[in-house]
Amino acid sequence: MNAPSADTTVCEFVMSPNQGERPQGACIDTLLLHYTGLREDALSAWNADPFGEALRWLINPKAEVSSHYIVDLDGRVFQLVAEDRRAWHAGRGSWKDCADINSCSIGIEIVNTGHAGGLPPYPRAQIESVITLCNDIVARRGIAAERVLAHSDIAPARKADPGEHFPWEVLFHAGVGHWVKPVEITDGARLMLGDSGETVSRLQQQLVRYGYGLSVTGAYDEATLQCVRAFQRHFRPMQVDGIADISTLATLESLLAALPEQKPIA
Ligand SMILES: [Zn+2]
């Protein structure tokens, strides 16, 4: 390994031992955003020093977790793992044809207590730093807008971060990520747990087409509910309930329609 140094000019470097080699030929095509969350066994430490507590955890060999970057509440950024190395932030999950997200991604942890802490808003200074960092990474790595993802997108059954209060719209208007204005919530037909048939298959196909790891079964099962909930957290955050109402279905349609044209493979 080369002497550790930051990949960008926006931060300091504090090396985490929790890292490995990327597999040979691995292509870095995904940027994954997280919140640090709240560890139940570290509440008092967290309250005293949320950034320090999260950082100590990410560089603790016993934790066996890490990320490439961490962004503090005040916007300070630290890099913990060189981008060409494999950090341990994603765990089990998938997106499109990638089933080993750590190998193909760069991970950013954003200090926030998350759902366990009542989903506090992300301070403006922190989001500005996230935007600067993301723009820098995406430009240097040529990462497609639609591959800037939430941890919950790649692991809907296990993860909820960075949560429905994360300002994806603000990032989008600053040039980060793929996003469309969510369609307003109205009354009407809804698909939910226990439903089955063609309309459920179509919903599942659309979620899979966007990238979610889901089987097309025609049955609105627990996995489908979790996937719809993950979709809502990212793209229709006004109501996160795992029920595919008209607004959810229409937002998914418009998101797919707004994707850059996929060139057929020659
Ligand atoms: Zn996460």
The main sheet orders its strands as 1-5-4-7-3-8
Helix content: 25-40%
> What would you call the shape?
globular
CATH topology label of the largest domain: Lysozyme-like
| Helical stretch tally | 9
Rg over CA atoms, rounded to whole Å, is 18 Å
Distinct compounds present:
zinc ion
CATH class of the largest domain: Alpha Beta
Measured between the Cα atoms of the first and last residue, the distance is 38 Å
Q: How would you describe this structure to a colleague?
A:
By secondary structure, this protein is of the alpha/beta class. It folds into 2 domains: 162 residues, Peptidoglycan recognition protein-like (Lysozyme-like, 3-Layer(aba) Sandwich); 60 residues, Muramoyl-pentapeptide Carboxypeptidase, domain 1. The chain has 9 helices and 8 strands. A hairpin with a 5-residue loop joins strand 4 and strand 5. The radius of gyration is 18 Å and the shape is globular. The site of zinc ion has 4 residues, from loops. The site of zinc ion (ZN) has 4 residues, from loops.
Topology:
Blueprint: E1 12-13, E2 19-21, E3 30-35, H1 43-48, H2 50-58, E4 69-71, E5 77-79, E6 85-87, H3 101-104, E7 105-110, H4 124-141, E8 148-150, H5 151-154, H6 168-173, H7 198-210, H8 222-235, H9 246-257
Parallel strand pairs: 1-5, 3-7, 3-8, 4-7
Antiparallel strand pairs: 2-6, 4-5
Helix pairs in contact: 7-9
The structure holds zinc ion.
